[in-house]
Design a protein that fits this description.
220 residues; mainly alpha; 8 helices; 3 strands; DUF6899
Length: 220
Amino acid sequence: MPYVPSKKTDGKSTDREVIDGAVECLANEVVSKISDNLSLLIQYKLAFMDVAKSLYFTSCGIGINKRVELAQAIRDVGAEYDYEGAYLGELNYAITRFIQRVPQLLVAKKKWKDELRYWVYARTVAALIYAARHTEHFGTGIDGVFEDIKDEYKRRVNPAYEAAQILKNGDCYDTPYYTRLIELVDEAGTLIGHQEVMLKRSDTTLHQDLLDFSVVVKKK
């Protein structure tokens, strides 16, 4: 969720800085408790639910801890906009940053070698689905936020990772309709990245992982 204002927005907004500080505290706490691959799922579920419950039970007398601190930061930033549900955008931003910072910190601390593997993606999605299901009865939209984060994570991260795996290992789709990768290059022929092309199955493309074409893009 990139809609939370930053200094890029108006030259003065500190919304992201406030939330980022609280995210960093929670991410470090969770990293300290991750001992194996399965514990990522467990710790994510606990963190998501602690933050969600704290947001929901705004008047509860829970002692301040790192998880409640993040919820407080989300509430405080959202309150500045003075409309019902404003904090939901801040929650989306916070959890979106959190699921990126935890793997980054694990790699920095040499507990992991890679920030993203398929099992990391799958267990992150599982925790987001869990949080969505277990907050639906709140009736506040918090469940929708977790669902939206899952969808954004799928759209923004997984396709690029999947493309890298297709180029490395080969594709596995031979359905009547499928996608194949094509290169984007600059005017000098330097590779910039890849895009998907939607195709009907044919003998020409069926066994290609990367099409025999490229899209040339020009700098502004």
